[in-house]
Write a structure and sequence with these properties.
Layout (H helix, E strand, L loop, with lengths): L3 H21 L3 H26 L3 H31 L13
Helix pairs in contact: 1-2, 2-3
């Protein structure tokens, strides 16, 4: 039996890596990957606390977060395709203005 603190440390590490990726990268694909890491860290927390308290609420929330992550990837890939089509690059700092 693994203690809940180890899951929380793993989750904190994953969340920190995701936050670092969002704050330092300019590539839109790296943004998406970093957000996915942060969502997976939240999922680990949900499942760990669900295990600790002995109910299935955290696992249910984890399933909803996975569905949210799938929707986020679908929308994000569409945005990345438009970004590449308009600017020929995935650097998010080049798209400073909204245009058709």
């Amino acid at each position: 039996m693994i203690a809940v603190q180890y899951y929380l440390l793993l989750s904190a590490g994953l969340f920190s890596i995701g936050l670092f990726g969002i704050l330092t990268r300019r590539n839109a694909l790296m943004f998406l990957m970093s957000v996915e890491l942060m969502l997976n860290a939240a999922n680990i927390n949900f499942v760990a606390f669900s295990y600790q308290w002995g109910n299935l609420t955290g696992q249910t929330f984890s399933l909803f977060v996975m569905a949210l992550a799938a929707a986020e990837v679908a929308v994000g890939l569409g945005i990345i395709l438009v970004l590449y089509r308009n600017f020929k690059d995935l650097d998010v700092t080049k798209a400073a203005t909204m245009r058709w």
